[in-house]
Amino acid sequence: MDSSRITLRPYKSTDADDVLSWASDDRITRSTHFSTLTSKEDALNFIDKSSIPWRRSICIDDRSIGMVVARPGSGDDRCRAEIGYVLGVEYWGQGITPVAVKMAIPLILDEFPEIVRLQALSNAEHKASHRVLEKAGFIKDGMFRKYLYFKGEIKGVVLYSFLSTDPIIPS
Ligand SMILES: CC(C)(COP(=O)(O)OP(=O)(O)OC[C@H]1O[C@@H](n2cnc3c(N)ncnc32)[C@H](O)[C@@H]1OP(=O)(O)O)[C@@H](O)C(=O)NCCC(=O)NCCS
């Protein structure tokens, strides 16, 4: 994939059909807490609520094919944000998500100046997600065994982080 075709931008209401086409696929929600969207109304609702948490559309040639999401902490956790990402199945395996995550890093750090740490808790078995974080420059902090319920089963997670002082790897 030519990385100049990849952009990250806010959602627009005209993205609803494209959002529905990737977000209605169970294969992208199976390994995340994201709920599958089932109608155009769901997609418009998702777009309407895209500022809380912070969400940006991963686009190819300006058409929405996925998202990067960040949830800034509050109170004593306001120094960090959790990030997540999903990509339409037909685009998997082309290195698109790591490029989008690298684009998201400066946007999140600029918008939330108190944040010095971005982190992701990734299911310990989800190797593709670990690779996305590694290719985006995140460092593995460690593993938490039997950490949370995921789709009815207790799973371990791997914690990755990127600090505001870490270098962004060029795409
Ligand atoms: C996880 C996910 C974001 C990866 O995005 P991507 O753009 O396909 O990422 P990459 O192309 O960089 O591939 C990452 C790794 O996936 C694996 N992969 C390669 N081709 C693949 C394919 N066709 N299908 C699935 N995984 C593949 C490889 O291990 C690759 O690592 P490598 O580059 O070292 O070989 C995407 O699969 C997805 O949206 N999954 C569902 C949602 C999800 O699990 N989100 C993460 C939890 S927040």
Explain what this protein looks like in three dimensions.
By secondary structure, the chain is of the alpha+beta class. It has a domain at 3-118: 3-Layer(aba) Sandwich (Aminopeptidase), CATH 3.40.630. It is 27% helix and 35% strand. Strands 1-2-3-4-5-7-6 form a seven-stranded mixed sheet, sandwiched between helices. The protein starts with 5 loop residues before the first strand and ends in an 8-residue tail after the last strand. The structure holds coenzyme A.
Overall pLDDT confidence: 95
In the predicted model, the low-confidence regions spanning at least 5 consecutive residues are none
Structural class by helix and strand composition: alpha+beta
Number of strands: 7
Largest sheet: 7 strands, mixed
CATH class category of the domain at 3-118: Alpha Beta
Query: What does the radius of gyration come to?
Result: 15 Å
- Bound ligands: coenzyme A
So, the CATH homologous superfamily of the domain at 3-118? Gcn5-related N-acetyltransferase (GNAT)
The count of helical stretches stands at 5
The arrangement of helices and strands along the chain is EHHHEEEHEHEE
Features:
171 residues; alpha+beta; Aminopeptidase; seven-stranded mixed β-sheet; Acyl_CoA_acyltransferase; N-acetyltransferase domain-containing protein; GNAT_dom
